[in-house]
Write a structure and sequence with these properties.
Length: 312
């Protein structure tokens, strides 16, 4: 028989013996997970971009914001052309809206400007310079993009706003947040600008995420702004708040808007109706309504402010 003291000593020895084994087991598991992540990281870092700068690429300076599309055509791999024979001019400070059924190439057209994709034919010019002749970093520094699907990084609100301009001062961040109508909400949080938003901003609503995205754009202060259905996924109350911020953001910039909500396009300088067959119509709201064409059909078929994907 074993007495109580010996039993306790025995159990303590067993525990001391098992502790390093448990630590080794945990370390082995963490090491395997870490190596898998590191291998994926190395794999990504080895990927070479297909779109690179020319040797004599120039930097954009004092951008006015004039955008020209000259006989632009684009297709994904071996598919049929998504865009063909696109000819458009957006003057500095003007707003152009792209409308039409889904699949017409509206988002693709906008993604060609910052060279996310390369045109197959034709050319795109900014202030008279072919974007292929412009340094990619310089080109993208002068373009702001606000999308429907917002990507926020795991971290604080301040860190996510700073993504628009990493070296900005705190006063600039606060000014951008005020312009985006998100400052009051931030100040209501316990940690304010240092509040942790969770993975991909899980702790925030859709409208709050969108306003942080707008704060990024305000902070970046680009000459060219692309709004890709920035309010289509929001409720009416959130849309009104964000629409007010958008009105401030678009002042003095060249703006390209993709929208289903007519409230964001009726006041555009020019509206372009884009389908899978190319540009069908263009002009301001009143002229297109008077023309009684496809835009009029889209306008009359709208339901609660949305342009439908198909028109019969």
């Amino acid at each position: 028989y074993i007495n109580t003291g010996d039993l306790v000593a025995y159990l303590l020895y067993i525990n001391f013996f098992l502790q390093p084994i448990r630590k080794l087991t945990n370390f082995t598991q963490q090491f395997q997970n870490g190596m898998t992540g590191f291998e994926r990281f190395v794999e990504i870092m080895k990927v070479k971009p297909s779109i690179v700068d020319k040797e004599d690429a120039v930097a954009l300076k004092k951008v006015k914001g004039k955008i020209e599309f000259k006989n632009v055509a684009f297709k994904y791999s071996a598919e049929k052309f998504v865009l063909s024979n696109i000819n458009l001019i957006i003057m500095p400070g003007e707003t152009m809206a792209l409308v039409g059924p889904s699949g017409g190439g509206k988002t693709t057209l906008c993604q060609l400007i910052p060279r996310f994709y390369e045109v197959n034919n034709g050319e795109i010019l900014i202030d008279g310079i072919n974007i292929k002749d412009i340094n990619i970093k310089s080109l993208r520094e002068n373009i702001g993009l606000v999308q429907q699907d917002i990507f926020l990084f795991t971290g604080t609100i301040k860190e996510n706003i700073l993504y628009g301009k990493p070296n900005a001062e705190d006063t600039e961040v606060i000014k951008a947040a005020r312009n985006a109508n998100i400052h009051d909400f931030i100040m209501s949080l316990p940690e304010r600008y240092d509040s942790y938003i969770g993975e991909k901003g899980i702790k925030l609503s859709g409208g709050q995420k969108q306003r942080i995205s707008l704060a990024r754009a305000f902070l970046k202060n680009p000459a060219i702004l692309i709004l890709d259905e920035a309010t289509s996924a929001l409720d009416s109350e959130a849309e009104i708040i964000i629409q007010q911020a958008l009105e401030k953001l678009t002042v003095g910039r060249t703006v390209l808007v993709i929208a289903h909500r007519l409230s964001t396009i009726k006041n555009a300088n020019e509206i372009v109706v884009l389908t899978d067959q190319g540009i069908k119509e263009k002009g301001n709201h009143d002229k297109l309504i008077a023309k009684d064409g496809l835009y009029t059909k889209l306008y009359n078929a709208q339901f609660r402010g949305f342009i439908p994907d198909e028109i019969e």
